[in-house]
Amino acid sequence: MHTPDLTKQPPRSPRVRLDGYVILPRMLDKGRATVAGKAGEYHYACPMDQQFLEFTGINPEVFKKELDKSDTEILEWIRKNAAHKRSPTEIAAWSAWQEQRTPSDLESREFFNELHKSSAPNREDIVTWFDLLDVDDYATFGGKP
What we know:
Blueprint: H1 24-35, H2 47-56, H3 60-64, H4 71-81, H5 88-100, H6 106-119, H7 129-140
Helix pairs in contact: 6-7
């Protein structure tokens, strides 16, 4: 199993899927890095991670204890332990919705706009949370947005 050092590289994009789930691979990277003391500025169980945790009905602290497993073993654990058993169709629909999600209230819109301004002020194509996280990760590690 690979434990990323998030002080040197970003976690996987929120768009990357594992068994159809978006967000999950990124959350695994952040959780494993947190356990290893290498999370940098990233936060496990952040509001985006909560989207996955609520959809599956998984407790973040219980899940954190499983992060020494491989991605494949984690998927097996999710299938057995998630409070909400989801069909592939439900997972696909939820993931598609997540990919298009935008700030839904004034507070999150202000946060979104501030992060957008600091990461890629001249980019007009940043409209979803996934867009924002991808460009912020890129800019944080030296990319020119």
